[in-house]
Design brief:
The chain is built from six helices and two strands, in the order αααββααα. The protein is mainly alpha-helical. The chain has three domains: about 60 residues; about 30 residues, no CATH class; about 55 residues, no CATH class. The protein has a two-stranded parallel sheet.
Length: about 170
Amino acid sequence: MCCRNNCTLRDRPDVLKTVNALLEKKYSAHKIEKLIGIGHSVSGRHSFHCWTKIAAEKIRLERERKRHPTKTKILIQWPDDPPIPANQLAENTLLIHVRYVEQDIQNPIGLIDEFGNWTEDAQIVFCFQVRTEVKEKFVLGEFENASRENYERNASKVQSALLLVSSNGNHALD
């Protein structure tokens, strides 16, 4: 679409569309002349008089869109909540369904609270949700051995890091 009534490209919509696409890609009038075969003065006038107004309108619309974005409402549906019918949701509503997934417990130490005591349901959970091979390793003490080894390894890293502390540059290390 052209803004001016006397634009040469107004009567040739296919050429107008091509010229606008090339101007959008920032082609020069001479390059458009070579590609399409219309005079560079025609595409130059169109670029100066019409295209600048079209580009300015696109920029104005984009700024307006950014200034007044559509608000998205987020609804969270928990497992205990009744289902929300789709016809009650607005157009810009995001509905998130929360589902609980039961997984095998990989580390039975997670059944101990922050005070080192087993939780109330630890025995039931341990019997029914911990996989058999994890139970066997736990009963054999492999988890405790691994925890102790990790602690010792981390403690040695801390000690070696303390030995590598450099001086402030005024004195040589002893």
